[in-house]
Structure formats: structure tokens, C-alpha cells
Amino acid sequence: MKSNNDKPVEIAQNIYWVGHKLEHDTFQCHAYLIENGKDSILIDPGSKITYFEKRNKISQKNKIKSGSG
């Protein structure tokens, strides 16, 4: 699987890697979106360091209705 830092990467039907690779960081958080309409869920959201990148990827697949940022 080729990583893409700008777009969600579909790894299975309705399951997307929405993490963000930090260059030169030995610890990477791998966030996943399981898309199921209004019942979608984010697995392992990680820290606020990559919040905006993850939010951007998630919003490409699923309309975010609440939250700040």
C-alpha cells in the first residue's frame, strides 16, 4: 500500500487510513476511519500534532458535523 499524506487511503471496503506520516518521527499514529454514514467511527485518533491533517482526510470521506478546528 502506497501511503498518501493528502488523501484517505482505502484499505478495505469502507475502511480508510487517515493518519499522517511525520517525517523523521520514529513513532507514527495510524488512525482509521470506518465509514458507516452517521454511525462512522474513528479508530486511534492519535495526538493533536496531526489533528488538522486527519480532519482534512476525514472530511473528504465523511461530512464532519461537530467539533472545532
Describe this structure in words.
The chain is of the alpha+beta class. The protein has one domain. Helix content is 16%, strand content 19%. The protein contains 1 helix and 4 strands; from the N terminus they run ββββα. It has one helix spanning 51-61; strands at 9-12, 15-17, 32-34, 41-43. Strands 1-2-3-4 form a 4-stranded antiparallel β-sheet, with no helix packed on it. Strand 1 and strand 2 form a beta hairpin. InterPro entries: RibonucZ/Hydroxyglut_hydro. This is MBL fold metallo-hydrolase.
Number of domains: 1
Radius of gyration: 12 Å
Query: Shape, please?
Result: globular
β-strand percent reads: 15-25%
Average residue pLDDT: 81
* β-strand number: 4
Strand order of the largest sheet: 1-2-3-4
Largest sheet: 4 strands, antiparallel
Total DSSP helices? 1
**Pattern of helices and strands:** EEEEH
Pick out the low-confidence regions: none
- Distance between the amino and carboxyl termini: 29 Å
Binned, the helix content reads 10-25%
Helices and strands: which structural class?
Answer: alpha+beta
